[in-house]
Amino acid sequence: MSLTRPRPTPPPTAAEHAPPPARRWFVPLLLRIHFFAGILVGPFILVAAVSGALYVITPQLERVVYAHELSAPVPDRTIPLGDQVRVAEEYIGDEAALAAVRPAPAPGDTTRVMFAQDGLGPSQTRAVFVDPGTGEIRGDLTVYGTSGALPLRTWVSDLHRNLNLGEPGRLYSELAASWLGVVVLVGLGLWISRLRTARVKRDLVRPRRGATGYRRLFGWHTSLGVWLVLGALFLSASGITWSTYGGANVSALRSALSWQAPSLETTVGGDAGGADPHADHGVVSAPTAAVSPDAFDEVLAVAQTENVNVGLIEIRPPASAGQAWVVQEIQRSFPTEVDAVAIDGDTLAVVDRVDFAEHPFMAKLARWAIDIHMGSMFGVVNQIVLFVVASGIAVMVVLGYAMWIRRRPTRDPSRRAGSAPAEALPQAPLWGIALVVAVAIGIGFLLPLLGATLAAFVVGDAVVQAVRARRASRPARTFDGGADGDVV
């Protein structure tokens, strides 16, 4: 038996305690991006989330606010569509030109006879609501887009899209949609990093019981974030498709990869010559010649023998000579029905037809993404999910600001909020810096507004850090305090 005492285990060195090299700079970098993006872009995300949650419930609000215009007594029989058009034209007179008709989709609904008129905005028409049973005029409102949004929903939609400021205001929504994805992805990276080192991992998927103060706010912020991550990323990605600069790049990419929906040929007796199917987007055309109201019944009967088999449809007369009538399904709920047929008004021959089933898969995916984003794909269920996700995002933004304020130093009453996380890039290796720069450049090409603001953040942060470093390196100033030689 050996009487030699075992040597004590030496304490771990600082190198053994140090985190992995990547964690020394990458995780702090994520934290700094998450912090600055949340603080600076948080107001945009908050407005987008609140207005989006409000938009989701506008279809129900419309049914209440515009009940007289949208509904009518269920009739025993309906009058011909042509007679309903005549009633609306007599009501309008020469103030506007007939642009489209949406027959009553179900018993108890009204028919919309839509007119193009000077002074209306892009994609707007003046709709006259007609009782299909009696021909009574039930209302006269401005409607917007394929969704047929009435003034209330249009106002909320514009608030969500551009703060009701027109085209310049769309920059706000592009910032919100772009940075929302960045904040969520960076937050997810931080959550994964904490999950790997947390002793009680369940505290990262639900708020810690008994926590108070900053830890309570952090628990709710983290828990909400991980449960909403998929919904938030979806809203960010689909919202970018409507943006000014990023949306244009997405459209160009879809066109280059032939991911666009096929266009309907409307030229009678000739070829459209490869016209851009999106060239008239946002413009409501009116016929240049008189259109017989009776033709609406005839054209609709032909379309119903082809591929039009739902109640939600729109009939558009030819905008000029040599053009066909268009009958388009506009049902955006599941199953998607957006089939279309072009019909020669003189011969009632079918010029062309496009079925949604024949769309490329990526075009279908884009259609579904838009409809889900607007809350129309799966009805009330879709609306509830979107409302919860949008409301959760708004709460997360508020919690983020509350955490920032809560972290203010208690010993310094002049400080109103906590300080920013420490700078990380100076500790990064060259390959890490190169990777960050490459990612930023790639983002800038696809999403120019996000790339520009990201570059502004980085440059501004670098300038601030350089100024602070220069001030810290200056020697302290001294002066002769007087005859006694005290230095102050």
UniProtKB/TrEMBL annotation:
InterPro entries, sorted: PepSY-ass_TM
Top-level taxon in the UniProt lineage: Bacteria
Keywords, comma-separated and alphabetical: Membrane, Transmembrane, Transmembrane helix
Signal peptide (residue range): none
Transmembrane intervals: 33-57, 171-192, 224-245, 384-404, 424-443
PANTHER family per record: IRON-REGULATED INNER MEMBRANE PROTEIN-RELATED, PEPSY DOMAIN-CONTAINING PROTEIN
Protein name: PepSY domain-containing protein
Origin species: Microbacterium radiodurans
